[in-house]
Amino acid sequence: MTLTLVTVGTGTVAPAAARTGPAHWVERGDVRLLMDCGSGAIHRLAQFGLAWEHVSHVALTHFHPDHFGELPALLFALRHATHRVEPLVIVGPAGTVRLVKSLAEGFGDWMLDPGYPIGILDLQAGEPFPLSPEVMLEVHPTPHTPESVALAVTAPEGRLVYTGDTGPSADLATWARGCDLLLSECSLPDGQGVDGHLTPRTAGELAAAADAARLVLTHFYPPAEDVDVRAAAAARYRGPITAAADGDRFDVAG
Ligand SMILES: [Zn+2]
Ligand SMILES: [Zn+2]
After folding, report:
1. For residue 62, how far is its CA from the centre of ligand 1 (angstroms)?
2. CB atoms within 10 A of CB 124
3. I want to staple 210 with a disulfide (CB 3.0 to 4.6 A). Which of 83, 176, 234, 253 is the partner?
């Protein structure tokens, strides 16, 4: 069995030709988890040959529209472009249930009763949620929005931590400690950083403090395209670093 990550969308809210909004696919056996569901996600899933029809879980990190805005389109696609009967579970930070219900007020009741069973849950830090008997999902708060969380997927093969959106956080590093792959946001170049986001250097510092075995950078605003983010992160972190592109695949192995 392998725990696989595909960086489906490595961009941000800023439209970009080669990077769609945040979305990352995690697959292990019957678990097919989509972490965030940003603009362009469903067409990218098809483009990269991922079994979007059989997505088992969607996990949101926070409620900025570039991280969840394509969720209604995914539910609609599963309703009209598949013969789905298996359940779909949507999880996220506190407020996820309320968010999806409010979306349904606009889009229609089908969102809550799309023709296949649907479950929606708010997750709490410190309460691991089983995606399968062997795969656990955990959340941990990040300094970005009041509800924002990072996600960790733990399987026998290894542990993957996805920061979602975050500013620097020693607490997050402690929680992520020893992970096999740290998928970290890397919004803007050093010198152009803003509160609530990371730069290559602060992403490298997070990976070093967490003693992550591998660092994968994502969530690049256009100015980040103009610098060597790998080299900048490498100034603070000695492990292997990848600046992810849409469609890159990673084997998360301990
Ligand atoms: Zn955000
Ligand atoms: Zn973002």
Report:
1. 7
2. 13
3. 176
